[in-house]
């Protein structure tokens, strides 16, 4: 039996991972802003946690390790999307997006590392997205937060490997969850009506569910996340979903094509 610590456990991928872990006989420290909606189970350790509150985050992490002993896997999954052209986004929306998707995961890693080192190792799994490699009009802050957390983790991987701590970044495509319904949407500017951003604004105002026909199956995504924890060494990335594979591959291929070796060498001494 393993013990997992999960953020954002009340819905979406976090909920699916939590339920599958319990079904497999594992123990879960499940955290959410509304713990009353978490499933009830004898092997569930529920806790209220707003990941953007640094004091609360450290308190809950310390309490979980103190009461549960060893925690094998930390699944950092809490997150939210913001949509709007860069100049449409309010200062408050910018602050929230960075706080939830970038600063909170950084603080969570910093909070759990002393415990993982003390117990001789463990695994950190971070939900990012295929959006950590690609970009789309209207998603500037979302992509910035996801690219940022991957940059942070890329560096930390080398720092903690000597302590037996592995890190995996999970990069799903679009998954059939409530993510689209929970989007923070900026007030549209008329100037963008005829642009790709305006088109998405119209879809959102129509009440369309942007994830209803998504290719990603949350149950299968959750299973892949759980199974990755048994892989040694820890896989650095998991691209999950045919859309994620195609989009990430295309983005990386295009980025390589943009490199100009002759230009690069021409600026050397």
Describe this structure in words.
There is one protein chain. The chain has 269 residues and is α/β, with parallel strands linked by helices. The chain has 8 helices and 9 strands. The protein has a 7-stranded parallel sheet with strand order 3-2-1-4-6-7-9, sandwiched between helices. It has a two-stranded parallel ribbon with strand order 5-8. Helix 1 packs across helix 6. The longest helix is centred in the middle third of the chain and has 28 residues.
How do the helices and strands line up, and which of them pair or pack?
Layout: E1 3-6, H1 12-23, E2 27-32, E3 44-48, H2 54-68, E4 73-76, E5 82-83, H3 91-118, E6 122-127, H4 140-160, E7 165-172, E8 184-185, H5 196-205, H6 218-228, E9 237-240, H7 242-257, H8 261-266
Parallel strand pairs: 1-2, 1-4, 2-3, 4-6, 5-8, 6-7, 7-9
Helix pairs in contact: 1-6, 2-3, 3-4
Short description:
This is SDR family oxidoreductase. The protein contains 8 helices and 9 strands.
């Amino acid at each position: 039996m393993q013990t997992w610590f999960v953020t954002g456990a009340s819905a979406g991928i976090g909920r699916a991972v939590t339920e599958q872990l319990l079904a497999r006989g594992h123990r879960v420290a499940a955290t959410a802003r509304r713990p009353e909606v978490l499933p009830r189970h004898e092997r569930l350790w529920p806790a209220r946690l707003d990941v953007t509150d640094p004091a609360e985050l450290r308190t809950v992490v310390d309490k979980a390790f103190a009461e549960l002993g060893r925690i094998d896997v930390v699944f950092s999954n809490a997150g939210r999307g913001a949509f709007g052209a860069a100049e449409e986004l309010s200062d408050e929306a910018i602050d929230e997006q960075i706080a939830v998707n970038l600063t909170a995961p950084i603080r969570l890693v910093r909070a759990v590392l002393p415990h993982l080192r003390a117990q001789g190792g463990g695994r950190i799994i971070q939900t990012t997205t295929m959006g950590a490699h690609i970009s789309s009009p209207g998603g500037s802050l979302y992509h910035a937060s996801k690219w940022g957390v991957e940059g942070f983790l890329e560096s930390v991987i080398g720092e903690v490997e000597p302590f037996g701590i592995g890190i995996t970044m999970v990069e799903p495509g679009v998954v059939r969850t409530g993510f689209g319904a929970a989007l923070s949407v900026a007030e549209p500017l008329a100037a963008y009506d005829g642009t790709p951003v305006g088109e998405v604004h119209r879809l959102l105002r129509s009440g369309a569910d942007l994830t209803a026909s998504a290719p990603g199956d949350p149950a299968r995504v959750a299973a892949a996340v759980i199974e990755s924890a048994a892989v040694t060494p820890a896989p650095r990335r998991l691209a999950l979903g045919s859309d994620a594979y195609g989009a990430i591959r295309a983005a990386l291929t295009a980025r390589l094509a943009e490199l100009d070796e002759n230009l690069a060498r021409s600026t050397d001494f």
